[in-house]
């Protein structure tokens, strides 16, 4: 299966359509330079939808892989479609000037500050103005450019909601500053750190950063770490990017069997609250309401039965009436709610309504009839 998935992803890399990727020379007032910039827009881009924005440095090396992951996971794994912007930096070793820092303070040099403003005050506003972008923005960098992303945590509110930091070459004190800043911030931040093999000084600092970040216990900070001892400085990008990408959009994906067992069944809170919180988080992060998937509805239904939380059936039924109004879902769940309350007449009328609706998933007219007959027998109607 892994081989098949890898082959499919390779095909995606090979088929990045010219119609979806555009390149331009961006005249930067902040940098007083002309910079090569690449953009990827989803095939079916429409102004009626909102799209998270992914900013990729070292675009010559990372852009195509990021676009391939964006296409693959949005098609198969239930994440939103995104806009990707890549900043090219290899010519004349621009990356070292763009992302340079003072050895003493660890803060950006003058050119680094200009590049910081180029991204935050020119590139991002340009895309926000011309396209329907969502509030969720991701930063992706490697080595020195990965370190540069951390400077966006130094403001009270970051331009970016998510960071993929691939084998960063950390500035002085960054292993302490990043955790301190995350502890002080109030917004939702996703931070994924990736480390390669070896015992270099950079890797030692990355491991220290990992230990410090693991010590953060704050519901708004979502930290994850992957180490690949078998990877080197070249292969680390291929090793780490796919898994990091998948974890970044975990909240958007349908409820998995693992999530069901480890989070829903073990929670002491009402079952329906888990669904409410999940979709409220999606709306907060991505700026739009996602339709509740049938998978998630069935997971909450199963959990309500498993945990004898029959009160969850009422709000679940109301949700289904709104999101799946032509189907049996809403009235069937409401019928079971009244049945558990011992209100036979209400349950009977509700199951009769369900019988007249469209079948969906395991809910069939035959099952509705069985419920109706059982209630008549139980309550003597």
Topology:
Blueprint: H1 2-14, E1 21-28, E2 33-40, E3 51-56, H2 59-76, E4 83-87, H3 94-98, H4 110-130, E5 133-142, H5 144-149, E6 162-166, H6 174-184, E7 189-196, H7 201-214, E8 221-228, H8 236-248, H9 257-264, H10 271-286, H11 294-306, H12 313-323, H13 329-341, H14 344-355, H15 365-379
Protein architecture, described:
The protein is an alpha/beta fold and 381 residues long. Helices cover 50% and strands 15% of the residues. An 8-stranded mixed β-sheet has the order 1-2-4-3-5-6-7-8, with helices on both faces. The longest helix is centred in the N-terminal third of the chain and has 21 residues. It is elongated and about 85 Å long.
Notable characteristics:
8 strands, eight-stranded mixed sheet, Rossmann fold, 381 residues, alpha/beta, disordered N terminus, Serine Threonine Protein Phosphatase 5, Tetratricopeptide repeat
By CATH's scheme, which homologous superfamily of the largest domain applies?
Alpha/Beta hydrolase fold, catalytic domain
Main sheet, how many strands, which sense, barrel? 8 strands, mixed
Taking all residues together, what is the mean pLDDT? 90
Number of self-contained structural domains: 2
Brief summary of the model shown:
With 381 residues, this protein is an alpha/beta fold.
